[in-house]
Structure formats: structure tokens, C-alpha cells
Amino acid sequence: MSYHVYISNSGSNFLSHLVLNADTGQLDARDNIDLGEAPGAIATDAAGKRMWICLRANKQFASFDIDPVSGSLSATGRVTVPDGSPYIRTDNTDRFLLASYYGAGHVSVHAIAADGTLSVDPLQWIPTDTHAHSIQTDRSNRFAFVPHTNPPNAIYQFCFDATNGALTANEPATIQPSTPEGPRHFVFHPTKDLFYSVNENGSTVSAHHFDPDSGTLSGFQVISTLPEGFDPEENTTAEITISADGQHLYASNRGHDTLALFDVAEDGSLSLKAHYDTEATPRFFYLDPTGKWMLSVGQDSGRMSVYAVDQATGALAPTQRLDVGDAPLWIEFVNAE
Hints:
With about 325 residues, the chain is mainly β.
């Protein structure tokens, strides 16, 4: 099994395109895909046929067709959006593209046409607050969540109507940590009703119970991503991911420049297990779809590290390091045919 791997290099005007052999872990560079502008967040559909890229400086979303054999991209359109977005994601039907807006303090929904192009205007442009950092729907596609770092230090809770793409405020509309943690990104547990947020300002991870009927969260644990004695003022967290079996959770430390590994207990609580050195300022990292390999990019190193994953323990062992581009900040996998 092989995967096309795309890296957004925010300090360059191209995507790095590589191919991962998931049997051996070998990652080979293929080409650089020139966009003419600096890329940011990436979203793809479930079939791996469409891609959308945020061109944050120019306040645009660009859409592409993906050739599953070569991995090449063919541009299909661009739309201008009200502000630059740090995060885009399709809903679970791939009929809508959801986006958060850090500076503008909004979220938006665009319709996705059958050819993968986006509606010229957003179906919705909803005010939240400054520092809206990410947005995703839950497994049922009935609810969506938008973490905001400090201020306002809150997670906005929405109901989502997949028939028309409408977001409406849930009740309550927000939850706030009792301390200024600054929730940034999140993952759901793959099989249980659990929600984990990585908190940029507090260098912590928060565990929440998720009510699948009401679509609301209730926090029950906050745990540091740092080793004892390291000053959290010298660190911010960035990304979070969880293994397919829900046994291991990872978060990235920018400052300590590590990937933190947590064990996930039966009740969903976390225990910090280990730290693994990684690239400078690891803004993004991700498990490949097989769960056997971890890829981590360094915004300040311009490089990507590859790790073999011990799927029984979650432990990481470095296997490869490559140059990618200036200020890499996103990794996207697509099945290769």
C-alpha cells in the first residue's frame, strides 16, 4: 500500500509531493507542485479525488482534482473568502467545506459542487470570536465544534444540518476551561464518546465526555504535555492525533520540540508516557492511514521526520528525515493507485 503525501510549505509557494510506502516506511520525494502562492490548510474528500487548499495571504480557497496514480493536481477553481483561514475540513458527506477564521473570529460553510468546486459565496458566515482555530463535525455529522485559543478560551458548540449545510448554535453555545488553556485543535476517540483538545496556551490536553444526543461536551481532565520542570511559558502546543484503536494519543510541543505520547485508559483518562524529539516548532504531525508511521514537520526546520510506530505501545522510533520546504505546516495523505 502506498500513499501520496502532500506538505503545505507556508514559506514557499508550493506543495511538497512525496510517496510513502506503508509496507516499508520509505518516503520518497516526487515533485514540488507550484501554486504561485503560499499554501496553508488542506482538505480532501473521502475518495481521495478532490483537494481544497487555503491560500491564506490572498484570502482564497483553491480546488483541485487529484490524479490517484501520479498524484498530480489539476486546478478546478478558486473562490475569495472574507479572511484568511487556518483550518478547513469537509463534513462527513463531502458536500460542504467548513472553515474557521482566526483573525476575523468567524466560521463559514461553502457548498461543494459535484465537480469539487466551491460556491462563490459562503452559505453561512457566522461570528464567533477572535482566535477561531479549527472546525470539525462529529461522527454522526450532526454537530460541529470550534476551539478558540486565548482569548476567549472557549470551544463553540454547533448543531449541523447535513441536508443544507446550516450551522446553528447549540445549547450551551460555548464551554470554557476553568483556566486559560486556549483550546486549538481536537480529535474524537475512534469508538467511544470522548473528545480531546490540545490547548495552545496552557501546553495541555483536555479530555471531555461527548454526549451524542445533545452534542455537548463536559470536561473531566486537563493534563500537561510537558515533562516536569519545563517552563510552560517557553512552549505552545499545536496538533493532536489519536491511534485507530484509541489506545494512544499524541500532541506536539513547540518550544520543547517534542511529540508527547499519552496512554488512553478504559475510562478515557490520559497518562503521559513519553516524549520524542522531533523537528523545530512541530506545527503539524500525523499518523499515516495504516497507523504504522508517524510524519512530523518542523515550521522552523523546513524538514520532515518519519517514525516507525510500535502499535502495541505507541512508541516512536525515527527512521528517516527529509528536506521539504520553508515553514511546513500541514500534512495530507491520499491513497495512491
